[in-house]
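<goal> How does this chain fold?
<sample>
Here is the protein in question

***
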Amino acid sequence: MSFRRYFLGRIFERAYRGTRIGYTAVSVWLRYKFPRWWDAYRGRDPDERDMTQIHQRNADQIYATAVSLRGMMVKMCQVIGTRSDIFPPQYVKTLSQCHDALPPRDIDTIRSVIEEDFARPIAEIFTDIEPTPIAAASLAQVHGATLTDGRKVAVKVQYPDIEHIIRTDLTVSRRVAAIYSRFDRNPMDFLPLLDELQRHLRMELDFRREVESAERIRELFKNDPTVVIPSIYPEYSTRRVITMEYVRGVKVNDKKALETAGVQMQGYMTRLMRIFNRMILAYGFFHADPHPGNILVNPDADGRPVFTLLDFGLAKQLPEGFGLGIFELMFSMMTFNETAMLRAFDELGFETQTGEKETYLAIARRMISRSESGTFQGEFTEEMTDGMFDAIRENPVVTVPTDFVLVARAFALLSGIAHSLDQRANALDALGPG
């Protein structure tokens, strides 16, 4: 390909992506503004309008744009899908689908990245690489392959143009956010969200960090035979390629397949919750994305479940003392000890606009009211976390720690896994030794 053709292609791509992002942003903004203008013209209170359908239409359009453009737009949707404290439930539910499978790139594109990073023909590394990927995501996709020494591996390969796409999308998104702030009298400040996204992407684009996170969690569980972290082969890994042990297993929430495989289901979720309790409450470093596609299960010789954790791009270091704060919050909510509850919110880094801490009690009450029994018994269900974040959006909470949002989301994902198996994901029940 000539330089001129390559250069023109980049210009066209930048213009196309900018136009799609801009069009989506304007459509979303006008979909909110026209009803408010109409209500004001008719002398009605715009705040009394039910926005559910508008939220859903906007979320659907953003999702369609993200799946079409991929890259940073998908990552932005994934971030929004975790921020129940900021965005309405329609956004969170719709955009969190971006964690599911995306259309894959062709195998020739993947081959070109591998050969470029290793500076040699792919046949000198792999005797075979499966053309159909095991999984495809926003930044990379995973293929089964066989090393020249016969070992079966999984190869995670970053898309070749992803850094350029992300730079383009971030630039456009910042411009859109600036224009939006100028034209809206009560704008939502999107720049902190873009800053957070940029920090995450900078880390995720360097696969060497993901390798370090995997090795760190492997070290934490080195004496626990119920936790498997696939071996990574550093000599076949680079900044854009990770080659790891190929591990087979049953999806963590596939009840029928688990029973067929002979996995012991009694105490199943308690065992899984104990793994995440140890990471969050004790170790302070955890796998922050336990959706069903990232956990495989195999039975040991006695039928007990052995959990394989995959994809450490969202592994997270928690602040010192954070685990104790989470434990104190859970225990105080179970006993409704208001003094301990207020102290836990403070320790976790919550802040209010006025400094009025009674707001925290209102948030906790809303959360507890969404539980099936009307009391907190140790499980952060999706309904309870939705209740908490509904209350947060309605109250003058200025700072909700990102770490807390990620932990609450992780517990909610685990609760979803549990309910699909007719079990419970009770974090307090899982505090004891295995």
About this structure: The two ends are 59 Å apart (CA to CA). The chain has three domains: 3-98+163-202, 101-160+203-247, 249-434. Residues 3-98+163-202 form one domain.
